[in-house]
Request: fold
Amino acid sequence: KGPVPYIRKVGKGAENPGISPLSEVWYNKCVRMHLSRKEASMERREEIIRLWFSMWLQNRDLGLDEIFTDGAVYVESWGPEYHGSERIRHWFNEWNTRGRVLQWEIRQFIHAEQQTVVEWYFKNIMNTGEEEAFDGISLVKWTEGNQICFLKEFGCNESRYDPYQEGPYPHFREEKTLWF
Reply:
């Protein structure tokens, strides 16, 4: 038996304030809230993930060096893999010249030991006018200092259906399969 995961759901329309990447601000907040060390670590990790999502929504680097270790690995759901914080920064800056993130809503966090799973909804528009929207999760692995050392995304088509709705044999839609 492994550790029991801690699940924190984030409701639609829940307050998602901007956060300061400064550890001192985070520490003081935790002291004021009388959080245990484990709860404080979960709070900090959630703030870091919110900061990463906010950076995409604002198209601005708000503290990438505080989020990722120098040797971090980031795997996108459709295949690209970035090694190191400088490569992640390059991808972030370059991608934002070609598109814009419209929504990246957090649905829930699941914490276990040095890992967090975050469920989310994502929507973007590219400069070509093409829009994409899908549900997803990120598997995040942390260092002792609460920096991301590994992040892998998984995507799920938002246009779902039951292929057995009309009988015992599947009827699949005749459409292009999405990349994830």
The helical segments are 23-33, 37-58, 64-67, 85-98.
